[in-house]
From TrEMBL:
Pfam family, one: CHASE2
Single GO MF annotation: adenylate cyclase activity
SUPFAM superfamilies reported in the protein's UniProt record: Nucleotide cyclase
Span of domain Guanylate cyclase: 430-568
Annotated segments matching region Disordered: 1-30
GO biological process: one example: intracellular signal transduction
Domain of life according to the entry: Bacteria
Keyword terms: Membrane, Transmembrane, Transmembrane helix
Transmembrane segments: 313-335, 342-362
InterPro entries xrefs: A/G_cyclase, Adenylyl/Guanylyl_Cyclase_3/4, CHASE2, Nucleotide_cyclase
Positions with biased composition (Basic and acidic residues): 21-30
Protein name as catalogued: Adenylate/guanylate cyclase domain-containing protein
PROSITE patterns registered for this protein in UniProt: GUANYLATE_CYCLASE_2 (PS50125)
Organism: Azospirillum lipoferum
Amino acid sequence: MDGPPANPREGPEAPAAVKPAVRDPPPDRRGWSRRWLAAAIMLGSAMLALAAVRLVPPLRTADESLGDRLIAAATPAQPQHPAIALVLFGEDSFAGLACRSPVDRGMLADIIGVLAAAGVRAVGVDVLFDQPSLPDLDERLRRAMLNAGVPVVAITALDQTPLTDRQRRFLDGFTEGMPRGHANLAKDRLDAAVRWHVPFGDDGTPSLPVRLARLGGVSAVPAEPFRIDWHGRPDGSTTPFPIYPAETVAVLPKSWLAGRMVLVGTALAGIDQHRTPLSSAGASTPGVEIEAHVLAQLLDGRSSPRLPFAGEAALALLMAAAGVAVALAGLPLWLLAAAGGLVPMAGWTGALALFAAGGPLVPLVAPSLAWGAGIAAMTVQMSLRERADRRVMMQLFANHVSQPVADEIWRERATFMAGNRPRPQQLTATVLFSDIEGFTTICEALEPEPLIRWLEGYLDVMVHIVTAHDGVVLRFVGDAILAVFGAPVARNTQEEIDADAGRAVRCALQMGRELVELNSRWQAEGLPPVGIRVGVHTGPLVAGSLGGLRHSEYSLLGDTANTAARLEAYGKMIDARSSRHCRIIVGDPTWQAVQSALHGRCTALPVGEVALKGKVRAVRIWLLIDDEDADIRG
């Protein structure tokens, strides 16, 4: 994001730009760096796996299909649901009827009468009345549904149902005055399987199960689509719900039906049959049975047994961490490959046993991918580390453009780039210029090696403070640091500009506070303590790339950068301090931008309007006082 600017110190007194020597971080810092890298690989592997399972169609299908296999094979045994029964028109039901479609309205009317007389709680008719049959039979069925003495819910069709206008008019007229619910099923776009239920249509129409559940006293119904919790079977040969053929209803004992909610529908080959997690060996599930599963879920107040996303994400992160740990263990390649396959297999076996025991359904595709990605990424990183270390010496002298600037230009290349180089832009930013007091004396007192080591330690801490406050270090000028807040991305509002000024001032205050600990450590090591001067100024700048093909720098041009440097130099003329080891001089635009936001953290003493070197107009400046520094407050 940053790059070296034009030197803001003008005139013969400006020191030559010095690029500090760079050395490998000490072992403890390298250790922490590797730990952070391992943590990043863990997090990245988990996030990548979770995203891939949701965004890559084959992986999403695999995830859902493997979950379906668990449901079909290991759903815990449950008794038949006591509150629901199904009455189905099957092939035998139509053997003695004149036609298969539409369903015989007279027979339906008789069934509704029998169910009402048996004392059922409610009836849901999963038959779409979208076309007439014999007028007398149609009217008879309509009267039977309206006058049954128990609630009878008819199904309607949502807008996306492919019906003609004539069919819709007949449907609306036939079901007028009846409680209605839609029977549309939500099918997965990839494999057309039904796994979710849509409780309400776009127009607010409830589904058939929702309408029946409300009649059954359920008040809290999910407003958004939810996964279906499929009701288990007592054994492999018994259905989850009692199912009675339509032609046998009249002879059934009333006790078999009393108090139940009865769904009436069809179970015909090729008609209203759907793929579900219960489907096995190519079999399909009748739509009315799917509605029964949803109704049972609503009546029981159950939710899907599938592990929520938060749990899946935590498991993926754990598996990624395990993969990274295995890679870090330095196992032989054959053993690493074996572990890569055996651990997911063990996970799936455990998930199967857990679900069969009544636990949650654990989706393991994303965790398995995270496991493999963690192993692979960490293994690749370890193999590249040695090569990267060999390139360090070349990188010491090749970084003419700082990495933050390069990263920012790449991310915003459409905005910045023109002709393979950053295009010039005008922006308003806050520039910070800091310098060590008495640095020349310190240079004379120290040998070259301890001097560079001491200066590196100082610069490393100061740069960390700048970056922690979202600043960009553009250049080291000897012992001085030039940083900018608000570049290279131009700010669009005054609030953003003021926020940059606030970050710059907080950065300057923190630099002074950090010197308390640094000076204490240096004195214990026999190194000289230091104080610093900081100049901060806010104003317009021109940013762009300067140089030729062989060497180019991202630079800031304009009066603001020069003024910040002059403010720092003017600190030599002021006896008072901002804190024990620091003088912070800010221009009036900066102080006006931050004084309300930093109330209680710092105050400012007016220095006056001063004529800075190289400037025609006087500049109003302020000396900041760090209110958190006890020595200054005293």
